[in-house]
Amino acid sequence: MYNNCLTGSIPSDLCLLTKITIITNLQLQSNKLICYPSCLSSLVSNNGYPQCTASPTAFPTYTPSDADTALCAIVASTNINSIYPTWFCSNGQPSGTAICSWTGITCNSNSNPVSLYLVGISLKGSIPTEIGLLTQLTYLNIAINCLSSILN
Q: Which of 99, 111, 126 is nearest to 6 (CA)?
């Protein structure tokens, strides 16, 4: 998450992404954050940010529509559709192409998104808390963008 324009606090809902195994060091440099959730304390470099006190929201068990909801929330809260036109939703549902064919998304054999790679694409806006619905993610990289807030 380094080198973004992040402000506010990292939502504790990010802690629900329990399958992410690639993160070894959550780099928060070059942001203006208030705090980070305690569940990420082992991953956060000493950046001078205090821990937040909020607990994660409990999301329901993963279903394919949860991925649709999460990714369409990203479409609604960022400029990603102007960068990658395949990222398109209508009435809160993906439209046009299947989400597993969207640029930056890798899915497993069950069509569950397991990787989200959106590095250095001039992404602007905010990452919605619905990202916590992507419970099958094992890799998330949104570095080198200009996200004004991680909360939506």
A: 126
